[in-house]
Automatic annotation (TrEMBL):
It is found in: Membrane. GO terms for molecular function: symporter activity. Keywords: Membrane, Symport, Transmembrane, Transmembrane helix, Transport. Belongs to the sodium:solute symporter (SSF) (TC 2.A.21) family. This is Putative Sodium-solute symporter.
Length: 478
């Protein structure tokens, strides 16, 4: 792409981001209290929340990472999006109503009702750690796109992405995230569609792609069932226990709308996954000698300036949308679980609002340094998801088997899952066993041992009483 074209692409992206900033400024009046800043200050339609959750899960890391994997293994790379779609369907059936009835908008708050304050703090730590890992992959992939398309240094691109993202999300709080992420998801869909259309046109269509690539790249299970199942564990687990998903389902007026939002999100993910994988395959046919991480960026760089500008704007928008969700989730946990109990026990809203704004900036800037050395984008993204799979086990036990295990075992399982999963990842997933399996089975084993070894009669769980009390209050109000 010529320098003039790069400036045109940058201008289109800049205008798009300016319009999003105007939206954020326009709704900032709804973020003048801590509660409104973290919840959006109202109820929203199900389709809007569906797009909100979609935008958070089809960020640049997933788009670039799926294309990167599609470049190497083919169409089976789409399974990572299929796993997320299945996760949202299961979440709608199993947990959406329960989270909505409970009314608690933090994952740590939900678990602490059954397992105590120690588990609350441990849950916050592992959730924030997992979200920061996701942010690393987002910055790395976003930097790769901008560096390739705009022909700038990758380090500079990552720093720009990080700083702009943080400034953008800190303006309007959760309400701006909801509205702007609807725009992000729509444009992201358009961008991937345009990139796929261009790629298929360049190779001569699907039939020509079949002749130019090895046949195994069209095998839907070429990635291997071990990897597919690992993606399912990580994807489903992350959705069940992701902080910003819980915040999202609490922004609709009732449980039925929360379920519909999840179904909308799942339905939109499947074609997106197929499109991203095919983009990687088109790049493999057109540019077989490039590094796999450049599969999506290299294709964009070959497009005409107007189309490339729209695609890059969509990628940039999804990047900022995901960062906003990650930053908002982490900042909310820091506020509710650490700052207010220890440093603001009087619950001064002025102090809390100031803290959560500063925390949003801090957790947004922190991952930039690690992103500068990150190459395996999709693998890093799914490490973040795998870590949350361990929390998903505890969430399911809280709602469906509250008497199983012990509070001490729950606390130990979180700490052990964090250490074991990250250690397994750093060791290179020995014997071909993905770290997602470690994240899943560690809490199962520890909670089972805790259940078997406990003595005496366990205390009756608090959570069922809370839910029953809420339902009785609502019935009385009606």
């Amino acid at each position: 792409m010529q320098p003039t074209s790069s400036w045109i692409v940058l201008s289109i992206t800049g205008l798009y981001m300016l319009s999003l900033a105007l939206i954020s400024f326009g709704v900032r009046r709804h973020s003048h209290s801590t509660n409104n800043y973290t919840t959006g200050g109202g109820h929203f339609p199900a389709f809007l929340i569906g797009f909100l959750m979609l935008s958070e899960f089809i960020g640049t890391a997933v788009s670039v990472g799926t294309a990167q994997t599609g470049f190497k293994t083919g169409i089976s790379a789409a399974w990572n999006l299929f796993a997320l779609a299945l996760g949202f369907v299961l979440f709608a059936w199993l947990l959406a109503r329960k989270y909505k009835d409970l009314g608690d908008n933090t994952i740590s708050g939900v678990l602490s009702r059954n397992y105590g304050q120690k588990t609350r703090f441990a849950t916050s730590i592992i959730t924030i750690f997992a979200l920061e890992i996701v942010a690393v992959s987002i910055y790395a992939s976003g930097g790769a796109v901008l560096a390739s398309v705009l022909q700038v240094d990758r380090t500079l691109a990552i720093i720009i992405v990080g700083v702009v993202s943080v400034m953008y999300v800190s303006i309007g709080g959760m309400r701006s995230v909801i509205y702007t992420n609807f725009v992000h998801a729509s444009l992201k869909y358009l961008g991937v569609g345009l990139a796929l259309w261009f790629g298929l046109k360049q190779v001569g269509g699907i039939s020509a792609l079949h002749t130019q690539l090895p046949q195994n790249m069209f095998d839907w299970t070429a990635i291997g069932w071990g990897q597919i199942i690992a993606w399912m564990i990580a994807g489903i687990g992350s959705i069940f226990s992701t902080q910003y998903v819980i915040q999202a389902v609490n922004t609709v007026s009732d449980a039925g709308k929360a379920q519909r939002a999840c179904f909308y999100c799942a339905g939109l993910m499947i074609p997106f996954g197929i499109g991203a994988a095919l983009i990687g395959m088109c790049s493999a046919a057109l540019f077989p000698q490039i590094d796999s991480l450049q599969a999506f960026p290299r294709l964009i760089a070959s497009m005409d300036r107007l189309t490339a500008g729209l695609v890059v704007a969509g990628l940039a928008g999804s990047l900022f949308g995901t960062i906003s969700a990650v930053s908002m989730g982490s900042a909310t946990l820091l506020l509710r679980d650490f700052y207010e109990p220890w440093f603001n026990p009087e619950k001064s809203d002025v102090k809390s609002l100031r803290f959560v704004r500063l925390a949003t900036i801090a957790v947004g800037l922190l991952p930039i340094a690690l992103a500068l050395t990150s190459e395996k984008v999709l693998m890093i993204a799914f490490l973040g998801k795998a870590l949350r799979a361990s929390l998903a086990v505890l969430v399911l036990l809280v709602f469906y088997a509250p008497k199983f295990g012990t509070p001490k075992a729950a606390f130990l399982s979180i700490i052990a899952s964090l250490v074991a999963t990250v250690g397994w990842f750093l060791a290179g997933n020995p014997w071909g066993i993905d770290n997602a399996y470690i994240a899943l089975f560690t809490p199962i084993v520890i909670m089972t041992l805790g259940h078997v070894m406990r003595r005496g009669t366990p205390p009756e769980p608090v959570l069922p009483k809370v839910v029953d009390g809420l339902k009785q209050q609502r019935a009385g109000a009606l």
